[in-house]
């Protein structure tokens, strides 16, 4: 089959978010199909400035066609327009103007899609929010799949998005939480839909449960029995009073701290003792400002862990000895960081999947998540591999509990690995895409294999 992915920006330098998600799916599907990615020349999303060269590129085995944006974004003017359009009556034309101001505004991409969509069997649009999806989905809806990567934010309640979801014939949801939110918000009448998510690249691709690229020993033994699960079912009733809310410790002995590929990361960044890790954009919108405040409270109330940060710095970082900034890391070192951490913190209040949480679980590291993100709460409850917090005091209490209890972290680590193995192996994910494509096109989709992408 010939498949086109349409995404606002694309490249190996873009880590996290829907762009990273799209790239992982495209690379895997390119092993079995003829795949093109149609995208803009932008590398950075705040301005959409053209930085990649226009034309055809080859990125990790995938053909990438880049088109130049017609304009950059004036962020201050756009924020002013957003404040108005989210709070006052307006017309559909106002929303279309807002869509153009938001960017990326790339008529050349849409013109190519209008002119050349016929040879493609399927068009897969990533992220509901941007103009390439909103306008591109109108070109050939009968063979288009929408991957919304959506969460509850002011923009999603605009009328242009009601039109988008009402017209979608096929939708690939990330999680059941995202699906429930979208079905409650929109009149969705799909021909075919699946709750898909994304494969986690840290796992072996043979589907046999053997970790690869430095992930330490394969899973052993069953999950902790249900009556001994360490994660309470309701946050207010359990985590805030975690020392009374959890069940007994598992009998299996657990080492004080897992010793694996993370030791190199600890040595390199002079990390001693307990470590909490955050990875991704260091940005107030990802919950980082609140993370710094809450972690300060944890320290002030007796916590002694260090907070390590990896990713792009888009806001000031407090100058304090208990925060270490590792910067943008290559893949191998990212794996080391996830393994080095005792706990991975996911502070974002707006998530549709959270590959950070899933990658941490795959490495056997428990997570501590923002309870305002329903998707993160869903992961914690279904996996019993993490805790979640609703406020500053719950954050400090839950992090203290996790850092103090080796048995709890060990049980959660095993649970997380089992959860990822059961739900986010690549053969599971590709099988769901096969069903989506087959249901949309009426073709008998081939059985999913688990190929590794080109390097």
Automatic annotation (TrEMBL):
Ranges where the record places region Disordered: 203-255
Molecular-function GO terms, alphabetical: D-inositol-3-phosphate glycosyltransferase activity
EC number(s) recorded for this UniProt protein: 2.4.1.250
Entry keyword set: Glycosyltransferase, Transferase
Entry keyword Glycosyltransferase: yes
Residues annotated as transmembrane: none
Highest taxon in the source lineage: Bacteria
PANTHER family, per the entry: SULFOQUINOVOSYL TRANSFERASE SQD2 (PTHR45947), TRANSFERASE (PTHR45947:SF13)
Protein name per Swiss-Prot or TrEMBL: D-inositol 3-phosphate glycosyltransferase
Organism: Luteitalea pratensis
